[in-house]
Amino acid sequence: MQNYDLVVIGGGPAGMAAALKAAECGVESIVVLERAETLGGILEQCIHTGFGLHYFGEELSGPEYASRFIELFKDTNIDIKLDTMVINVEPDEGKNIITAVSKAEGLVDYCAKAVILAMGCRERPRGALNIAGTRPAGIMTAGTAQKYVNIDGYMPGKKVVILGSGDIGLIMARRMTFEGAEVKVVCELMPYSSGLQRNIVQCLEDFNIPLRLSCTVIKIHGKDHLEGVTIANVDENRRPIMETAEYIECDTLLLSVGLIPENELSRSAGLQIDNITSGPIVNQDRETEFRGIFACGNVLHVHDLVDYVTGESQIAGAGAAKYIKGLADNDPEYINTKGINGVRYIVPQRINLNGDEDVKLYFRVGQVYRKANVKVTCGDVVISNKKKPKLAPGEMENVVIKQEQYKDFDRNSEIVIEIVEG
Amino acid sequence: MKRELVCVACPLGCGITVELSDSGEVLSVTGNTCKRGEAYAHSECTNPTRSLTSTVKVTGSTLPVVPVKSAGPIPKGKLIDCAVALRDVTVKAPVKIGDVVVKDILGTGVDIVATNIAEVK
Ligand SMILES: Cc1cc2nc3c(=O)[nH]c(=O)nc-3n(C[C@H](O)[C@H](O)[C@H](O)COP(=O)(O)OP(=O)(O)OC[C@H]3O[C@@H](n4cnc5c(N)ncnc54)[C@H](O)[C@@H]3O)c2cc1C
Ligand code: SF4
């Protein structure tokens, strides 16, 4: 058994920022457990630029953004264990047990006062899709292709169709074009893209790659290797319109149909998972319902910008430090946050009204809105009502609730965010 | 003449409207949230540029490729040519972040620099 004040699970941008913040707040014994051979998480394969504009005020690539944080570890005495996979978390207030395996140390139990979950997310796999036809080679998630091309230096194919217009799919459309592939079309089931506008411009329009909305792959062709796909438009109930079916020859089909937080550990630990975010339920310190267990980054909810991951993880790191030093509030008074009328989810899901800082609520909408108001209320009190030129599912929004406002909120009420059109 | 653009200078992706004269001069820029957006609109209507990211092969390292970027913006029309040129470039480990991999790529005046380390095997 190895004893630490804080065990951080995952060494991506979330785990790194949380560990560094906790150290800065005075936590002395910290270990980061990471299953890969390097710190940095998914950023190591995101070689395009666009990271760090908010946090560093300059546009960095993924590995550059990660390296800024990796460098900071040199001046700390945080222990880092790479090639170390956590297989179980046993919550027990103040002495949680974390079990991990590694080549170097075998099976090890860690005992920790506090735990930060920072396992990130993974892509929805192909099994999650219902497409008729065979299952030949050449079908993979966009993130897998990203790893092949950017880390392993290997091009998976020459003629590409992309299903789903998530950011990773868009980025890979451009990346494969640069490496000599022909990207024939990006099909998106929904009438809008879930990717950022800038990626549609820079990754598709710049190279005349068509984006077909309300369109999906209905059949896969090829025996051992993919030879082509049939695509078709869909009606408003997302049923294919057969008259629009069209065969497209390709050797690679990339799936970019969304990300899901990687919460197997959280589930088996008994944490309550939010049905919409697929991440644990947390308060404003990113503390779960188990005291001393925190979560941040993509394991909590899927972020589009790593800058927000860093910000959120610093909150979790500071929260864990407060808990470890015995400074946390022992009698929290919680009320829930609730999204209605177009607001799909809010993080944090509950806030402690005895908190001593302003709280930023992050939320996502379920469809595209133009010139709509974001209205925040608590009981009869209107906290804010701001006009927004545009709201889109692909872009995370936030509202701030001031401490001097929420401290007097009715303990039996809830904080509601809604979209008011017109 | 009016042109509708999406600013790509940051992930906010503001919608920008540019008013152009018959000779292609920028008369007005509206819809941007910040100054960078205005600069983007001017450049997009007169001399559009993009930054380039890719990988180059590396020998003698633990990894087969190392990621690179253009140190500054490249004319949009030369983007693909520069990407094609990078497919034939091989560097030797060790590589540090910021190392110049190709100087003045295709006469654009822009260097290609490494964005990750490649340690010696
Ligand atoms: C394929 C892919 C591509 C992406 N591309 C972009 C992009 O281009 N731009 C962008 O802004 N965002 C991108 N994202 C989102 C990106 O994940 C976030 O911006 C950011 O990296 C999230 O940080 P994180 O630390 O929460 O997660 P990650 O970066 O995923 O880090 C989680 C870490 O936890 C480790 N881990 C997980 N489980 C265990 C375990 N049981 N034991 C030990 N370690 C564990 C993982 O190995 C990983 O290193 C992408 C996501 C994916 C999945
Ligand atoms: S105008 Fe400014 S805020 Fe809007 S996308 Fe461009 S850089 Fe970002």
Describe this structure as you would to a colleague.
Helices cover 19% and strands 36% of the residues of chain A. In chain A, strands 1, 2, 5, 6, 7, 8 and 20 form a seven-stranded mixed β-sheet that branches. A five-stranded parallel β-sheet of chain A has the order 11-18-12-13-14. In chain A, helix 1 runs parallel beside helix 2 (62-72) and helix 1 runs parallel beside helix 7. Chain A has helices at residues 13-24, 62-72, 142-150, 167-178, 197-204, 264-268, 306-324, 403-406; strands at residues 2-9, 30-33, 49-51, 60-61, 79-81, 84-90, 96-102, 106-117, 121-123, 132-133, 139-141, 159-163, 182-188, 211-213, 215-221, 228-233, 246-249, 252-255, 259-261, 293-295, 334-340, 343-347, 350-352, 359-365, 369-378, 381-391, 397-401, 415-421. Helix content of chain B is 17%, strand content 35%. Chain B is built from two helices and ten strands. The longest helix of chain B has 12 residues, at 35-46. The radius of gyration of chain B is 18 Å and the shape is elongated. The model of chain B has no long low-confidence stretch (mean pLDDT 93). At the A-B interface, strand 4, helix 2, helix 4 and helix 5 of A face strand 5, strand 6 and helix 2 of B. Iron/sulfur cluster is lined by residues 7, 9-10, 12-14, 32-34, 36-37, 40 of chain B.
